[in-house]
Structure formats: structure tokens, C-alpha cells
């Protein structure tokens, strides 16, 4: 069975490689590379302890990352944690791997005194929206709607609209 563990800074190259590989089927190589730029080494230098890696059996090239979650506890909002980026090997999707990652993150955040988790996704990512809703995330009101979903215009810069989620953690 795959081992769920805290991320390490040394996982950075493998995680970036997984992003480019796993999203390469739905994006051009340049688009997949651009997506991987959302995960600079800084995230694992500063937030490895709050990020997670699901590591499969060791092959000839070493351990295989099957899934990951990069998240952190807010420095400015003592009651909040944030999930920044999650990836699951396409061959493992629909098998509860994402739920396992999120559940472990929720438990660790609650143990650290966090009572709320936030996350975002793109308005067109219906799968991500449905997944977050299934985990009990609420959609934050936005400044407009798209396909019945509240959207925050220019959330991450001009033209970078996002759907914002929050989940209250219970003890």
C-alpha cells in the first residue's frame, strides 16, 4: 500500500515532473510547464511539513510519487489553512486518493488549531468544483456567476478568475 507522508524539499523535482506528466494529456507541453510554475521550490522549503506526498512502491528509479497536496497554515489568519495545489496520478483518480490527501490535511490542520480550510479552482474546472463540494466545501460568494457558480473576477490577476471555497473543520 502507498505510504502517505509529509513532503520534503527534495520532492520538488519529482512533483514538478508529475505536474508536467499528469496534465500533459490535456495541455500542450508549454501549458503543462506553465502550470508547474505554480509550484516553486519555495513551497517545499517553507511548507513541506504541512504538505503531503503519497508514495508508491519503489521502482528502479526510486520511490514513485502517486499523489501530492501542497498546503500550508496561514501566518496571518491563525484559524485558517490553505490547500494550494493537489495532483493525483490519472490512473488512480476516482479511487479515493484525493479524499485521503484532503482528510489527512484536515486532520493535521485541526490538530494545529485551524478551524477553516480554504482552496480555489478555475471556474471551468467542473470536476474540481464537484470534488470540493463533495468534501463539504462551501462556495464563497463572488462578484458574478458562471454556470451557476460564484466567480471572483481577476482573483489571481487580470483575466485569472477563480472559484473560492471554504470548509469549516469540526473537532
Describe the structure.
With 171 residues, this protein is an alpha+beta fold. It is globular. The strands form 2 sheets. Strands 1-2-3-4-5-9-6 form a 7-stranded mixed β-sheet. Strands 7-8 form a two-stranded antiparallel ribbon. β7 and β8 form a beta hairpin. α1 (12-22) runs antiparallel to α2 (29-36). The chain has 2 domains: 3-114, Gcn5-related N-acetyltransferase (GNAT) (Aminopeptidase, 3-Layer(aba) Sandwich), CATH 3.40.630.30; 121-171, no CATH class. The chain has 5 helices and 9 strands, in the order βαααβββαβαββββ. The protein is 29% helix and 27% strand.
How would the blueprint of this fold be written?
Elements: E1 3-6, H1 12-22, H2 29-36, H3 42-47, E2 52-55, E3 65-73, E4 80-88, H4 97-111, E5 116-121, H5 126-134, E6 138-139, E7 144-146, E8 149-151, E9 163-168
Parallel strand pairs: 4-5
Antiparallel strand pairs: 1-2, 2-3, 3-4, 5-9, 6-9, 7-8
Distance between the termini: 28 Å
Number of helices: 5
| CATH fold node name of the largest domain | Aminopeptidase
Largest sheet: 7 strands, mixed
Order of helices and strands: EHHHEEEHEHEEEE
Which properties best describe this structure?
single chain; 171 residues; alpha+beta; Aminopeptidase; seven-stranded mixed beta sheet; two-stranded antiparallel ribbon; 5 helices; 9 strands; 29% helix; globular
Amino acid at each position: 500500500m502507498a505510504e502517505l507522508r509529509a513532503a520534503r524539499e527534495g520532492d520538488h523535482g519529482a512533483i514538478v515532473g508529475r505536474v508536467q506528466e499528469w496534465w500533459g494529456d490535456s495541455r500542450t507541453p508549454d501549458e503543462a510547464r506553465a502550470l508547474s510554475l505554480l509550484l516553486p521550490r519555495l513551497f517545499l522549503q517553507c511548507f513541506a511539513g504541512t504538505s503531503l506526498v503519497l508514495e508508491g512502491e519503489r521502482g528502479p528509479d526510486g520511490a514513485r510519487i502517486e499523489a501530492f497536496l501542497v498546503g500550508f497554515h496561514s501566518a496571518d489568519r491563525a484559524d485558517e489553512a490553505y490547500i494550494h495545489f493537489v495532483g493525483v496520478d490519472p490512473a488512480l483518480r476516482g479511487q479515493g486518493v484525493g479524499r485521503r490527501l484532503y482528510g489527512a490535511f484536515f486532520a493535521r490542520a485541526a490538530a494545529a488549531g485551524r478551524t477553516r480550510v480554504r482552496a480555489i479552482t478555475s471556474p471551468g474546472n467542473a470536476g474540481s468544483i464537484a470534488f470540493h463540494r463533495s468534501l463539504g466545501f462551501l462556495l464563497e460568494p463572488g462578484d458574478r456567476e458562471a454556470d451557476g457558480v460564484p466567480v471572483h473576477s481577476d482573483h489571481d490577476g487580470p483575466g485569472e478568475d477563480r472559484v473560492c471555497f471554504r470548509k469549516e473543520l469540526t473537532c
